Amino acid sequence: MKYFFIAGEASGDLHASNLIRELVKADPSAEIQGFGGELMEQAGMKLMKHYREMAFMGFVPVLLNLQTIRRNFKQCEKNLSDFNPDVLILVDYPGFNLRMAKFAKSLGLKVYYYISPKVWAWKSSRVKQIKESVDEMFTIFPFETDFYADRGYRVNYVGNPVLDAVLEKRTDKSFDTFCAENNLIDKPILALVPGSRLQEIKSLLPRMLKAVNSITSHQVIVTAAPNIPDHVYIGLVNGHQVSVLRDKTYDVLQMADAAVLASGTVTLETAILRCPQVVCYRMAGGALFFAIGKFVLNLKWVSLVNIILQRSAVKELLQHNCTPANIYKELRRIIEEKAYRGQISASYDELQKVLGSKGASARAAQMIVEKLRS
């Protein structure tokens, strides 16, 4: 069968690539094209456009790139029409994907959604669009089943693929070996993970660096996103005593005493790797758009750890609270207060129980192939 995928960011590329690998096992004759990243390409998909040309976050960046966004839609519509797949598989990224779902339905194509848009967080009105344009939804959080059921839509819960992705890439290297291989000094590690989009990296990384500048007990490692060129990090870390490592995020988090993160899937990945964390977020457009956002969001928290556990298990520093002073204060608590670290560890134990067993990608692939064949 023929499959067309659309993923618009790094986490989507990762989870879609694992799904593609499992689809090829379940359907050895599979032909796969789509929009995504190098991981999906390596898994067996013919890459039509890279997500780095699609990742615009925030009101202002979207306005400034409207022409590019329109061209992306047009190219995707043409590629989809020309390929004429048995199914369009969408991975999160709702602003783009829900429009493509509607277009695919106009062509009479099957539309499956893997990893639901966060409609339970905001824009719950999108549930109507999903019901109209998406034939099957494959969800990764247990609470999404009840959310959609309350709105008259049945979903397929497959478990969380983050668990698979993280556990498969855990390293068994010692701290000393890791430091030696990456030319690091013999000091405990603080990890800075400023996100995968250029706008958020430019916004968050300078604040993170300023926060850790006076912490001499640890060495600081910045993890580089796969789609962001080296010169961006070189320019931002200039003058700071830090190391920048690429393609080593999981290893760094596994070795680190604490991590400062951009809000996103990485918060959940960090919890699975059991690294204490500080979650940061700044919206392009400043305090005004953040204030407006508070009225439209349906959630008290932004990090997946807190959303799943429904409480403040890890510290969130959002918009005007995302300051170097506040980041520094939270890091000092993590580093110095044993009881506080114990609370975070206990929360991670609870999270692991909620997430359940691994194998989400294989379960989703099997369901997709069976539904298409039936």
Could you explain how this protein is built, in words?
The relative contact order is 0.12. With 374 residues, the protein is α/β, with parallel strands linked by helices. It folds into two domains: 173 residues, 3-Layer(aba) Sandwich (Rossmann fold), CATH 3.40.50.2000; 184 residues, Glycogen Phosphorylase B (Rossmann fold). α10 crosses α16. The chain is built from 18 helices and 13 strands. It has a seven-stranded parallel beta sheet with strand order 3-2-1-4-5-6-7, sandwiched between helices. The chain has a six-stranded parallel beta sheet with strand order 10-9-8-11-12-13, with helices on both faces. The chain is globular and about 60 Å long. α11 links the parallel β9 and β10.
Q: Given the helix and strand composition, which structural class is it?
A: alpha/beta
What is the first-to-last residue Cα distance? 13 Å
Physical arrangement of strands within the biggest beta sheet: 3-2-1-4-5-6-7
Radius of gyration: 21 Å
Mean pLDDT: 92
Supply the CATH architecture of the largest domain.
3-Layer(aba) Sandwich
Q: Per DSSP, what share of the residues sits in E-state strands of 2 or more residues?
A: 15-25%
Quickly name the level 1 CATH class of the largest domain: Alpha Beta
Proportion of residues in helical segments: 40-55%
The biggest sheet amounts to: 7 strands, parallel
Q: What is the third-level CATH name, the topology of the largest domain? A: Rossmann fold
| Outline type | globular
The number of distinct β-strands equals 13
What is the fourth-level CATH superfamily of the largest domain? Glycogen Phosphorylase B
What is the count of structural domains?
Answer: 2
The total count of helices amounts to: 18
